[in-house]
Amino acid sequence: MESSTIFMSAIIVLLAYLIGSVPFALVIGKGFYKTDVRKHGSGNLGATNTFRALGKKAGIIVMVGDMAKGSLATCLPLILDSNLHMLIPGFIAILGHSYPVFAKFKGGKSVATTAGVFLAFSPLAFILGILAFLISLKISKYVSLSSSIGALVALLTSIYVGDKVLIVFAAIICAFIAFKHIENFKRIIKGVEPKVTWL
Length: 199
Prior knowledge:
This protein has two domains: 1-107, no CATH class; 122-199, no CATH class. It is built from ten helices and no strands. The protein has helices spanning 3-21, 24-33, 47-54, 56-79, 87-98, 111-121, 123-140, 143-161, 164-180, 182-190. The longest helix is centred in the middle third of the chain and has 24 residues, at 56-79. It is an all-alpha fold and 199 residues long. 74% of the residues lie in helices and 0% in strands.
């Protein structure tokens, strides 16, 4: 691999992490609502906690912003004419959202950012994953459970598509999202996990 190619790949990875690190929940909360969402609900810098702390409008804006981060980062190799696989910066953006440099490495659970990555790279996995998420959310009212089901459906779709890199990515993401929601699953079992009230 040429040094220029390595340099460009490193730039893309860095940009992807910085893009993923942009804390839309914090920006929208403090900038327009004078509220730090980290001091409310779960304390996460994600769309779900924004919905709970600030309402539908703010939650939708943050969700769209977080998804856009994933899509933009995934498309960086195309934008910058690089041979780097698109899912690499996509995954880095997901890590950036979960561990953002701009918010002391305490972010969200990366569900919306992951959805943005799937949207950019595999629209079919995105659509089926979102449908599974919405159906599960409508029935169970649990975002955490629905997020994991959506990730699982995206993995199954990836297996159906047969893209080996996508399958590995989806498997890692499925495990990562489940890991990020362990405490939520424990609360569901105990019957104390908050249910959505905005659906």
